[in-house]
Amino acid sequence: MGIGKHLAKGSPKPQLPDDGVLRFYTMRFCPFAHRVHLVLDAKKIPYHSIFINLHEKPEWLTEYSPLGKVPALQLVTAEGKPALIESLIIAEYLDELYPEPKLFPADPLKKAQDKILIERFNPVIAAMYKIFVNTEVSPGAITDISTGLDVFEKELRSRGSAFFGGDKPGMLDYMIWPWCERSEMIKYLLNNKYEMDKERFEKLLNWRDLMIEDEAVKCFYLDGETHAKFMKSRREGTPNYDMLVNPTKRQRTC
Amino acid sequence: MGIGKHLAKGSPKPQLPDDGVLRFYTMRFCPFAHRVHLVLDAKKIPYHSIFINLHEKPEWLTEYSPLGKVPALQLVTAEGKPALIESLIIAEYLDELYPEPKLFPADPLKKAQDKILIERFNPVIAAMYKIFVNTEVSPGAITDISTGLDVFEKELRSRGSAFFGGDKPGMLDYMIWPWCERSEMIKYLLNNKYEMDKERFEKLLNWRDLMIEDEAVKCFYLDGETHAKFMKSRREGTPNYDMLVNPTKRQRTC
C-alpha cells in the first residue's frame, strides 16, 4: 500500500475509480486507524486509502465521518454507500463480513473475554498518551503503563500461546498492537530513559518480536524513531503528516 | 425481580443456590447495569441479582469484576465460572447466546450502524452527568443534551418506525434507555426548569411514551422523582442505595 498526501482544508474530494473497492479515510500516524489497517491487511481486503490532515480537515470529511474523525470506512457497494466509524466497530464488522482468517474467537464467551481485554488496554493507551503528547513527563505514567501491561503479560502466560489469538495473531493482538508499536518511541521522547523490564514482561517482549514479523503488521510498520519524529512535530503544533510521502527505508509497503 | 440490600465492605459473599442461574452483580440506580437488566428481562433470561454498594465495595467484588465495577455477569455454568464486565460487551454476548428475541439487527452493516449510534449517545450521557452530579448547573449541558438528541430524533424520523429496532425495541433502544428514563429527573434537580421541546423531539417523545409500556422497561422502571431522590443522596456523599429495599409504589417488579 502506497502512502498519499494527507488531504486538508480546501483539498478537493479525491477522484477514485468506481471499482467497488472499500474507501478508507485514515491518517498515517493514527493508532485507531492503524487498527483497521491491520484488520484489512490481515484479511487481504483491497482498499483505497484516503489520508486526512486532522489538523486542517477537508470540508467534505463529515460526509463520511460525522464527527470528523478517522478511521472511517466507506462501503461503496452497499446501498447509499454508507461509511462506518469507530475502530472496534469497523474491525468487528470486517471480521463478520470477511471471515478469512477469522480474527475474533468463534466462541461467544471467548470473544467477549477478548473484547474485555481490549477495553482493559485503555488505561495503557491513556498513560502512553501522557508521555506522547506532553513535553513534561507525567511522573506516574510509566508506572501506569507497566501496571496496565501486567494484565496482558499474565494473560499471555495463562494462555500459553505465542499470540493472544493462539499460534497466529487474532483480533486482540491487532487491537492493542498500534500502541505497542508506538511504545518504542518512548525512549526517543524520554532520551533513552525507558526500557521494558525483561523479566516482568518476558512473554510480551517475545510477543512483540513475533508481531513485528507478522505480514499484516509489516504492511504498516514504522520504527520508534519515525513515530517519535512525527510526535515531536505534533507536539510543536505543526504535525508533519506527509513526512513519509516520499517513502524512506523506514516506510515498508505491501 | 425483587430488590435486595446492597452488599458493602464487610458483607459476606451471598450464598446462592447451585442452580446454574446467571449471577448478576448490579446496583439499583446504575444506568450501565440497567442496560444489562433490560437485555436479560427482554429475553426473559433468569438471573440472580446481587446488589453492590459502590461507595463501600465488598472485598470479594474484584473476584468477579477486576476493576470493582458493575455490571458484572457471572456465567456459573461455563468452565471456571467466569464473569463478564462492560455493559455493551455483556449485552452483545447475551444477544448471541440467547437469540430470542434477537435485539441487534441480523445484518452486520445494520448492526454496526446501531453500534455507532450507541457510541454517538455518549455525549448525551456526558452532558446529563454534568447535571446529575453537579449542584451548580453547567450552562452548556442542556444545549449539549439537545444537540446530542437531535441525532436520534433525526434517525427515528429517517427509520419511520416507532422504535429504533422497528415495531419493537431492539438493542439500540435498550442501550440508550437508561439515560432517557433518567432524563426525567432533570426537572426535579433543576426545579422544573427543563422540558424537552415537543416539536423538536416529537418522535423521541412518542418513543419514550412507548418505551415506558415495554415489558422489559417496566421490569426495572423508576420515575424521575425517585431517580432524583437517589441522585440527591449521592450528591450529598451518602448514596442511599437501599431506599427501595422495602418496595414502594414506585418500585415495579417482574
TrEMBL record, chains A, B:
Residue span, GST N-terminal domain: 20-102
Annotated GO MF terms: glutathione dehydrogenase (ascorbate) activity; glutathione transferase activity
Alphabetized UniProt keyword annotations: Oxidoreductase, Transferase
Source domain of life: Eukaryota
Signal peptide feature range: none
Cited Pfam families: GST_C_2, GST_N_2
Family recorded in the similarity comment: Belongs to the GST superfamily. Omega family.
Protein name (record): Glutathione S-transferase omega 1
